[in-house]
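Quarterly update from the structural biology core.
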Amino acid sequence: MDSLLDMLNPISKANVGEEEALKNYLGQPQPVEIAPVLPNVISEVEDRSRTAPLPPEKPKSLPSNKNIIKNKLLKQYSPEAVAGIMGSIAVETGNSFRYDQKQKGGGPGRGLFQMEGKMLEAYREYLKNTDSVNSLNSQIDFVSSALLDNSLYDIGAGHRKKLKEAFESGDVEKITTEFSKRFLRPGKPHLKRRLREAQKIKKELK
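Predicted structure, tokenized:
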């Protein structure tokens, strides 16, 4: 006999059995898992990468003195003559190709051609008469003009004739030698070095 407690309980044992059966039939409700909400770190990083400024472009390098001289001379002379002239400039400036190059050891030589004495005086007079300033272009223009006539710097008609013949020969060695010997007339020619530099520049012009 059921106990008095069972009789007073609104849900009988039978009812309990039926309720359990119904739950088994319908299936137990599964707990819903809620994923934690994380900060949108990845998207923020991606967004920053998309909007990040591009690195600054590298500044374009300026032409070197050597290339400026080369291009200027090529407008007036053959590649062989350019190589011959620049072979001497390389030696005179110690390959700096600077128009403000001073003679090492405190000597009087100045510029691309290490002008001194009468040549330096003639160059300064040229700057004054043409209202020019000392520069790479001015020094090349002066030498180019002096190779044409004696009005700026008298190198002698005989020397000028030999230089003209050398320039027209197309022979780099001859041009280099005559330009050093008859125009620059350095105390120490260092001719082998001049010829070596001239040949190197000639290869660059090919």
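The first helix runs from residue 4 to 8.
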